[in-house]
Amino acid sequence: MTRFIYFQYSHYYWKTPGVLFLVLLFFMSSCMDVKKQPDSTAGTITGTTNIDPLPSWNEGPLKTNILNFVTESIDSSGENFITVEDRVAVFDNDGTLWSEQPVYFQFFFAMDQVRGMAATHPAWSKTEPYKSVINHDLKSLMAQGEKGLMKILGTSHSGMTSTEFENMVTKWIDTAVHPLEKKKYKDLVFLPMIELIRFLQDHDYTVYIVSGGETAFMRPWVTEAYGIPRDRVIGSNLKLEFQWQGDEPVLMRLPAVEFNDDGVGKPMSIDRIIGRKPVAAFGNSDGDLPMLQWTASNPKYKSLMMIVHHTDSTREFAYDRESKIGRLDKALDWAKEHQWYLMDMQKDWKVVYKP
């Protein structure tokens, strides 16, 4: 069935078929029943000092429940003990570990790449959709719909080797600045979530990123930004073709999607690549709901499901049900109904971004 996603920038909307292609690879997914989240009481991590592992989190039930979950999971004498090999935690990326407004950051990357290539393609200044990108004319660009969008993404993300693409991403992430926040994109990562990742890793959890964004876009910078090894990044993928350039074998990136790692694609990729059901899952949108449901269905262990709720319009952005990017509608209802934990960015976090 054809689905449609609407992307809003300023007062303009973009309508495109829900065929995942790179940054805009997000499907709205139907929901399934999930198990109720058990209550927990205050506690500290057994055998540790009094150093707060989550200093950027405000004191309250949410922080307490995180601490208790990990405390119980490492207590080999307790009923909620989780073996080390089964301590698998999965995190969405866009909107969960870094910001995603007003459009997905990988789309900003695509437009920046086209502008950077324009000097060697003089005809683009008079040819759409490139003309609109070069002139920063988003209204005209969006008016061209799917056809224009696919040209921009195809031009910026394919037709080069995997090594060349990684070098492009590395250069961009080290220099590019968000047009609204006026900070580098890699600085718009959420410090409370980084603390949570480190806290889990310190207690022998294997942490994966499971994102609708492209794997090749995330790998160059996730270790520096989050402390997650690049081989633990699971995302959407373009098709690759093995070729020879002279005496050197290369992988050429093709303008076609191999796998859409969003919505129901997330539990599929978790099962295929990790081979274990997670015991903890973290997301922020309806596209993450199947991953959270898959985690909640773990038959062996108590599980932890948490959703980042963007409620802070001052320090970040406030959006949920009506947002065209990172819509949180069905997942919000399911979280409340099944007593998953909602991370209220305004109330639960002392700070938002990594300094």
Question: Could you walk me through the main structural features you see in this protein, from its secondary elements to its overall organization?
Answer:
The chain is of the alpha/beta class. 32% of the residues lie in helices and 18% in strands. It has 13 helices and nine strands. The protein has a seven-stranded mixed sheet, with helices on both faces. Strand 7, helix 11 and strand 8 (304-309) form a beta-alpha-beta unit. Helix 2 (105-117) packs across helix 5. The longest helix is centred in the middle third of the chain and has 14 residues, at 162-175.
In order across it, which strands form the biggest sheet?
6-5-4-3-7-8-9
Category by helix and strand content: alpha/beta
Count helical runs: 13
Number of strands: 9
Biggest β-sheet: count, sense, barrel? Answer: 7 strands, mixed
Radius of gyration: 21 Å
Content of β-strand: 15-25%
Shape: globular
Mean pLDDT: 87
Secondary-structure element order, N to C = EEHEHHHHHHEHHEEHEHEHEH
Q: Would you identify the regions where 5 or more consecutive residues have pLDDT less than 50? A: 1-44
Helix content: 25-40%
Tell me the span between the first and last alpha carbons. 44 Å
